[in-house]
Amino acid sequence: MAIKIFGQHDEATIQQLKRCAAVEEDAPAVLCADGHLGYSMPIGGVVAYRDHVSPSGVGYDIACGNLAVRTNLRAADMTPQEYGRLADAIARRVSFGMGRRNAEPIRDHPVFDAIARSPVEGQRRLLSLAREQLGTVGGGNHYVDLLEDQDGLLWVGVHFGSRGFGHKTATGFLNVASGRAFESHSRLADDMHAPPALLPLAQPSGQDYVAAMRIAGDYAYAGRDAVVDTVLDILGAETTDRVHNHHNFAWEEQHGRETYWVVRKGATPAFPGQRGFVGGSMDDIAVIVSGVESPASKASLYSTVHGAGRVMSRRQAKKAVNFRAVQDRLRARGTVLRGAGADEAPEVYRRLEDVLAKHEGTIRIEHVLRPRIVVMAGPHEHDPYRD
After folding, report:
1. Which of 171, 190, 271, 331 is the most buried (most CB within 10 A)?
2. What angle, 0 to 180 degrees and rounded to 10, lies between the N-to-C axes of helices 204-235 and 80-93?
3. Is the pLDDT of residue 310 over 80?
4. What's the predicted TM-score (pTM) here?
């Protein structure tokens, strides 16, 4: 079992990844520098399976990912008052939080047809939910940001996944992996150290999961596109560049002479030339990166970080962080914040620059972005997505 570790991690996180890799002999695995404990498989973890796909490895938030678009607007052309009005408009027009319906529902989209034709009956039954929630953002660490790059241009950046549709799809296949019916209401084990849930690729259950995961991926892409389109409409802006990635997903890939299903949970694909958007905390930089070829890149299974990585649990943060002081600090820096709470404060994350440095030689930084507006769900929103 070959495991490549970037950065420093506690032993529990490393052991969690080792358990996931141990289910197949010599399964390559990677722990990125933003890694920390997750449900069953660590965030920042990557495992390459020959014969299985892992619903717990992909996680509950199937196809969580990032989209960033550069606009034709310059940050300096807007006043602080205009930034405040823009933040209010984003918070008003985009739905944030658990179980939200889109206030501006999307009536027609090809992804709805894909859901209706899903080979998985249980997923087909989620079509109504998918219609209601397409274009909503969710809670936890999911956000809509307006960022300024090193040239003074404004970018729109978003982070979220497949919402309740993906969560229920994941839950269904975790049931299947446990020998239950897809729509079973039996309580699933929610222990962070639960063994990996696996489905054999040679069996219908494995093929069904791959098909359903891909549909959830298309749904997540469509949702992020829709939210960014709304923000562009608010801004009255045009797009001049675009970077879009999943970081909770499984891909069929060739590494060396072998074909694997590479499961990335909170890890961004970074093949040579492939671009990614990686966000930091609300008071930190974000970056646009591209993968480069190197021995370390090969060892990483061409994967990199998806964010800065938590160093404090949500419960710990609510006790330890003075969020009013955080708000005052952001205001002094000229960053407009709407929503969020102590559990998403900058103090609960590593510095993104430090995390990226651990992956030196595997990625190239194209743009450095700094937040001007951060909009998230409110501090009392429950986050059901453990990943």
Report:
1. 171
2. 140
3. yes
4. 0.96
